[in-house]
Design a protein that fits this description.
312 residues; alpha/beta; Metallo-beta-lactamase, Chain A; seven-stranded mixed β-sheet; 8 helices; binds D-malate; binds manganese (II) ion
Length: 312
């Protein structure tokens, strides 16, 4: 199985269009040790032909332009794509807006939970994806889903979607239900176990997760690869930076550092490669020469970047 990180930044990307924090400023000037990053997305292929995109970011056009294997084959029909399916882990803007760029009468399949499919249903702009060409298929929770192309042919990739502690999409938050997770229900945020038909290896893709609980640890035990929520290094990072009032927890993202961070929570779980993705533009690990980036690396984590490849 071939995995490729298309976008390693959280919503907003890095640098973010309106951000004047020192990290975005440095990235804009091309400072050493900082890579620019597009918004959250992963691609996978197991059979050399069918590519599955995990989350369609607003930057998908640029991501496809930067990734030859996602472009129409030179020998292919006048209009074609190797992208057979798009799988969604939640309905946040950074994960669904790219669907709008995939219009143009191309056939592919969207896989998502009932909750996320309902968001597409309720927002009529997604009707630009003609239903007779772009089928929407339901992902059941805690069950293996074989990813099939529009013709029903196996793509060689299977996934298991499972609920993780998280939050309903920002634009759907119900303030009246602030005490009940702003209206969050099961299926609003899922993690994915990604497997291929031709190997026993499994990779986990969890770009949003508010907490590592016992269930999640048990699932991850023995995984070859984990791509995990690296939004913030510390919970109050956005407040400390002066760019926002929300903590990581308030946004449905657990932080990396400290006794209750993801490094510590997963330290005793055997996992092959552990890689942070969905990195916010305030996170100091974006500067690979920072002490925080060093801490992350010393604890066996890699810092995801656009174009990073994993072969399992
Ligand atoms: C998040 O991951 O918290 C969301 O992408 C936030 C957003 O929609 O901007
Ligand atoms: Mn996000």
């Amino acid at each position: 199985m071939h995995l490729k990180i298309l976008g390693s930044a959280a919503g907003g990307g890095f640098p973010q269009w309106n951000c004047n924090f020192h990290l975005s400023r440095a990235a804009r000037t091309g400072a050493a040790g900082l890579r620019t990053r597009t918004q959250s997305s992963l691609a996978a292929c197991a059979n050399g032909n069918d590519w599955i995109i995990f989350n369609a970011s607003p930057d998908i056009r640029e991501q496809i332009a930067a990734t030859t294997c996602l472009q129409p084959a030179a020998s292919g029909p006048l209009r074609s794509t190797p992208i057979s399916a798009v799988v969604l882990t939640n309905a946040d803007v950074d994960h669904i807006a790219g669907l709008l760029s995939l219009r143009e009468k191309e056939r592919f399949v969207i896989y998502a939970t009932d909750r996320v499919l309902a968001v597409l249903e309720q927002n009529s702009i997604f009707n630009v994806l003609d239903r007779t060409l772009v089928e929407r298929r339901k992902l059941s929770l805690d069950a293996k889903s074989i990813i099939l192309d529009w013709q029903g042919r196996p793509t060689g990739i299977s996934i298991e979607a499972f609920p993780v502690p998280g939050k309903i999409a920002l634009f759907l938050e119900d303030e009246a239900k602030a005490d009940e997770g702003f209206g969050t229900q099961e299926g609003d945020t899922v993690g994915l176990r990604i497997t291929s038909d031709n190997s026993d290896a499994s990779a986990f893709y969890i770009p949003g997760c508010a907490r590592v609980d016992r269930d999640l640890k048990a699932r991850l035990d023995g995984a070859q690869c984990l791509m995990f929520d690296g939004t913030v290094f510390t919970d109050d990072e956005m407040l400390a930076a002066g760019v926002g009032a929300k903590t990581g927890q308030r946004m449905g993202h657990m932080h990396i550092a400290g006794a209750d961070g993801s490094i510590a929570a997963l330290a005793d779980v055997p996992i092959g490669r552990r890689i942070y993705v969905h990195i916010n533009n305030t996170n100091p690990i974006l500067d690979e020469r920072s002490p925080e980036a060093q801490i992350v690396r010393e604890h066996g984590w890699e810092i995801g970047y656009d174009g990073m490849e994993v072969r399992l």
